[in-house]
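Reviewers of the previous submission asked for a worked example of the structure-prediction workflow described in the proposal, so we include one complete record here. The input consisted solely of the amino acid sequence. No template or homolog information was supplied to the procedure at any stage.
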Amino acid sequence: MLVISYNLRKHRAITELAALDERYSPDVLCLQECDTTDLAEEVGRLRLAHSTTGNRLGLALYFRPDRFTPRDIRAFALKKSLHDRVLRPAHERLLGARLIDLQHDREVIVASFHAAPLTALNSLRRHQIHSALGSLQLMGPHLPTLMVGDYNYPVFKDNLAEKVRDAGYELTLSDSRTYTRYKYFRGHFDFATSADFEIRRVETLPRGSSDHLPILIDAQYVGTHAEDEIDVVI
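From that input alone, the workflow returned the following structure tokens.
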């Protein structure tokens, strides 16, 4: 299964999505900072599953209808930072989808996540991540789960990975940094958190018009042989 996660930087990179689908053929596309009033129902071979509605700049999830059938889609509000309380840019920071995988005849949870900005403490972001994973478990207990997005976590990632493992998940960084806008906050901001998946690779894709670089996650179910996956990336 191929999943792309992309923070569009206040919707600036929206015109790049069709080219990403054409080149990488993702099964799922998870977006952050998209204008939810200006989303196409279809992007290439992908179909819009749902987007957040409580704020204009939010989250969206697209899927390939020949691979998945949505069963349940929910947006979740997470603990607010001071930035959220004062400026109110977003309160729905998680969009989860319970999907039926037609290729493997099983269900899976895929989610787009956007943590609080750098003005918040890492402790708040850890709380948001923990709450997000708990919410996804309620959507589908014991289902394979993949949560991708902008974690806004530039430092002390080893500590975060340990906390995530304690909760029964694995945190996977991409092969190169995903954020380079500010001199002192460059690094890996966009991650994948998973359970019951083998993450074969997380690749940082070429820069577009966003300050974040998109990432491509290549995941397979635990116990699934690589030859059972037929995705091809050129």
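The first strand starts at residue 2 and ends at 7. We consider this example representative of the routine output the project will generate in years two and three.
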